[in-house]
Amino acid sequence: MTVSALSLLDALAERALVVDGGLGTRLEERGADVSSELWSARVLADSPEEVLDVHRDYFAAGADVAITASYQVTYEGCARAGFDADATTGLLRRSVELARRARDEAGHGWVAASVGPYGAMLADGSEYRGDLGLDVEELRDWHRQRIDVLAGAGADLIAFETMPSLVEVEAILAELAGTGTHAWISVTPLAGRLRSGEPLAEALALAAAVDEVVAVGVNCCAPGEVLGAIEAAREVTTKPIIVYPNSGETWDAAARRWSGRAAFPTEAVRSWRAAGAGLIGGCCRTGPGQIAAIDRALT
């Protein structure tokens, strides 16, 4: 195991770690335009200092782990927006460099290089459905180049986020197994199952069985999904569990906006920790205020 991944596991043996909050959410709060299909990747390309400042905000709020702005940086999606392959590779590396810079300034923490699902690239809400129609080999081919670049970009591990289906989890694991590249695998559940309707516990068990996977869990879900997901993970693995849900609002893919009421239950953080979560943070519609509250709850 790499020194950086080992140090993270050593820290988890002592205490829970705080993961940062929504990067796109914070960029938007700061006045950045994240309305394009590239979402935060457009800001990464045009205004990298804004991304750096968001990482700084989260470390200042108490985050131990920064997730990079590479979630929406895909070769296919960026090509539609006019970026060639070399420029896309540059964006992936830049995302890690910025998070590392903020981490080094803060003097502590780890950097997780974000890899979003195939559906996110489509920018039509497919990551919340999981009905892609692609098989394992097709998804492996699509993910491979981005994984290879991020594995060599200097992050401490890769964060595979918002995975909606067993077939995509299987594809990611097939690419990881035997490489020595460490990662966490985080799926997005709805009503206790994957967005594809498949069993949540099956995906977590598959992920936990791969040596390169150092933690499993859920993200980009309603806060009410978290306890059930922790229980499902605990039934299949002793590896660390990561949870970083949304604020409780719902994404409207057609209108490209969030609806509903934000009610991130920071009072539930202790119950998530007591149930077995080791890494806790926030996803969409959470910001430094929620991360600071998580930090306070855990300490």
UniProtKB/TrEMBL annotation:
<feature type="binding site">
    <location>
        <position position="283"/>
    </location>
    <ligand>
        <name>Zn(2+)</name>
    </ligand>
</feature>
<keyword id="KW-0808">Transferase</keyword>
<feature type="binding site">
    <location>
        <position position="220"/>
    </location>
    <ligand>
        <name>Zn(2+)</name>
    </ligand>
</feature>
<protein>
    <submittedName>
        <fullName>Homocysteine S-methyltransferase</fullName>
        <ecNumber>2.1.1.10</ecNumber>
    </submittedName>
</protein>
<feature type="domain" description="Hcy-binding">
    <location>
        <begin position="5"/>
        <end position="298"/>
    </location>
</feature>
<keyword id="KW-0479">Metal-binding</keyword>
<keyword id="KW-0489">Methyltransferase</keyword>
<dbReference type="Pfam" id="PF02574">
    <property type="entry name" value="S-methyl_trans"/>
</dbReference>
<dbReference type="InterPro" id="IPR003726">
    <property type="entry name" value="HCY_dom"/>
</dbReference>
<dbReference type="GO" id="GO:0033528">
    <property type="term" value="P:S-methylmethionine cycle"/>
</dbReference>
<keyword id="KW-0862">Zinc</keyword>
<dbReference type="InterPro" id="IPR036589">
    <property type="entry name" value="HCY_dom_sf"/>
</dbReference>
<dbReference type="GO" id="GO:0032259">
    <property type="term" value="P:methylation"/>
</dbReference>
<feature type="binding site">
    <location>
        <position position="284"/>
    </location>
    <ligand>
        <name>Zn(2+)</name>
    </ligand>
</feature>
<dbReference type="GO" id="GO:0008270">
    <property type="term" value="F:zinc ion binding"/>
</dbReference>
<dbReference type="GO" id="GO:0008898">
    <property type="term" value="F:S-adenosylmethionine-homocysteine S-methyltransferase activity"/>
</dbReference>
<dbReference type="GO" id="GO:0009086">
    <property type="term" value="P:methionine biosynthetic process"/>
</dbReference>
<dbReference type="InterPro" id="IPR051486">
    <property type="entry name" value="Hcy_S-methyltransferase"/>
</dbReference>
